[in-house]
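Structure tokens please, single chain.
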Amino acid sequence: MCRVQRLGLPALLALTAVMLTACSGSGAKAGPPSSASSSPGSAASGQASTPGAATSTVPTSSTAPAGGAAPSLATGYLGPPPTTQPTQPTQPTQPARPTPGIPTTSAGCSASGLALVGTGGQGAAGTLISTFGLRNTGTGTCVLYGFPGTSLVDAQGRQIGAAARRQGAAGGQVRLAPGQAASFQLALAHAGCPSSAPVSHALRIYPPGDRGSLLVPYSQPVCTTPTVTAVVASG
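Here you go.
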């Protein structure tokens, strides 16, 4: 302390200032360089903003655009999967087959264009066999094929007994030009019929394939079922 007093107050102040400067210079450390200032918006969001970098939008949904808009690759929506099934090839339609034995160039004979006539009969062993003809009264050619429908009726047109059963083969088709006729036979067994058996008044004929009918007088006791043959061309 005696030495300090010898230096004097001005010298002491100067020495103190030098010592303080030396201490502060040796204890100070160089800090890291300051970073670039972040913009307020980047600091608030916690993300650094790089100048000049392009901003890209990442799709977060693959749903279809609203309003029925067309699908867009920008949204990542490729549209719903197809639901329609592939069209199956159309199968060719099979042509209709004509009825065997019936020509396609001529129409079938109908009751309105025919006349029913009796051509005779004969008896054998208690059975009456009658022959009938169907004559074409129209102006064009028609065709008959198969069995006519046949039944016996009373004076009021009511059927007596069962309709005639078919007997023999169907035969072939018969083409009738105007004025030509086809024939068939009806067989009715009457042997042993009781006196109380009903007696027919007429014979009702349905031409093959037609719903119309014709009547011809025919008076016989009915106690059995008649039989009928197919139509054939008359000689």
